[in-house]
Amino acid sequence: MLWKEYSKGDSRYILDGQIYGDVLYFLTELRDGFQHGELGHPIYFWFYFVVLNAVWLVVPGILVLDAIKHLTDAQSMLDSKAMKTKSKHN
User: Which regions span the lipid bilayer (predicted)?
Assistant: First the structure.
């Protein structure tokens, strides 16, 4: 519910907020030159920073793509029904 309040100040956050937040997280760390951790360390950088945070990009990304597929399929079905109905009336 906090994200709803935050989105009043930045409407971009309400549009797929998890991905937006993670992209900002990675980009701000890149801009700062990775000074908050050991760059290249196999556990602290690659596993904790990259892999564990990438999960928060991959899983929502898959869910967004799945939702788009379902919405596209539903719209196609409605469009085909509308075309059939229209052709019956002509």
Answer: 43-68
